[in-house]
Amino acid sequence: MSQLEEILEYNQKFVEEKAYVPYEAGGRPAKKMTIVTCMDCRLVELLPKALNIKNGDAVMVKCAGGMVEGSYGSTMKSILVSLYELGSEAVYVIGHTGCGMHGLEAEKMIQDMKDRGVGEEVFTALESDGIDLNMWLGGFQSVEAQVQKSVSIIKNHPLLPEGTPVYGLVIDPKTGALKPVN
Ligand SMILES: [Zn+2]
Question: Which residues does the annotation say bind Zn(2+) (predicted)?
Fold first, then answer.
């Protein structure tokens, strides 16, 4: 049985047995909070549990490193939608120790792409389109500094509702311990 078939089989039972009932919630975050964090698989259950967040409590925006890159990228757009359209009133940027984006070298990933069959001509074409892969794929050197940078982009955004608190934190992906970043 393929993974997809297993998922679909499980899912059918899940719905039939009404296993969804404990997770029923409205579409607006009950705790009026937006969390921006990393896609790291260790945080899938641990982060909500460690913050006492239940289904329906918070809007969760996830991406590699939980990095807010640029004022008009998809992460920033999600934050604004959450604040204006979903009733969120605060933003929490939560980086984590041991992040895959920490020290990520774009050069290695580009080499991996080449090793897996992406042709030289693709890189040449991207370069002539003005796409800087080294910049785009690069990670960060300090999780605290990256959180501060993301917080600063959000706080200084011209479209941020006035008075919105924006907090920076780092979570331990093993224990769930949180440390505020100032
Ligand atoms: Zn991460």
Answer: 38, 40, 96, 99
Please state the residue numbers annotated as binding site for Zn(2+): 38, 40, 96, 99
The CATH number of the domain covering residues in 26-98+141-181: 3.40.1050.10
Q: What is the pLDDT of residues 123-169, one digit of tens each?
A: 999 999 999 999 999 999 999 999 999 999 999 999 999 999 999 99
pLDDT tens-place string over residues 57-96: 999 999 999 999 989 999 999 999 999 999 999 999 999 9
Helix (H, G, I), strand (E, B) or coil at 7: helix
Task: Domain ranges for the chain, please list them.
Answer: 26-98+141-181, 105-138
Task: Give the whole-angstrom CA distance, residue 100 versus residue 119.
Answer: 25
Binding residue positions: 38, 40, 96, 99
Q: How far is the CA of 51 from the centre of ligand 1 (A)?
A: 17
Q: How far is the CA of 142 from the centre of ligand 1 (A)?
A: 12
